[in-house]
Amino acid sequence: QLDADNYETDPRLKEIRSAENYSWMDIITIHKDKLPNYEEKIKTFYEEHLHLDDEIRYILDGSGYFDVRDKDDKWIRISMEKGDMITLPAGIYHRFTLDENNYVKAMRLFVGEPVWTAYNRPADDFPARKQYMKFLADEA
Length: 140
Fold this sequence. Notes:
Blueprint: H1 11-20, E1 24-30, H2 38-46, E2 49-50, E3 55-69, E4 75-81, E5 85-88, E6 94-98, E7 104-110, E8 119-120, H3 127-139
Antiparallel strand pairs: 1-7, 2-8, 3-4, 3-5, 3-6, 3-7
């Protein structure tokens, strides 16, 4: 839980960004009145996919859900609300959707330059996916 009301000056967020080398950030507002091509974007976010880099999101306002696959390929729903931060590791299948409030404002963080490419399932041949699957096997 971080202080979303004071994210510009929050020393804890600054410490996390420094420790994890999150050098790039922007803010996205997902709402029909704020996001161009809202309907298309919502469908894209909900399509099961993975990234080749970690996905870091910090909820500044509103709420929504990240769905991730467990080691048995079953969905786990993670409720996110104001003040929550999540890091989805490279190679994990996931999707995002809004809840009944249909609004979220989130900070997107990256190590280095942002990479926006999502690879829809199936994308099992990428090294990031293989590394993630090895991590799951080693943890079991």
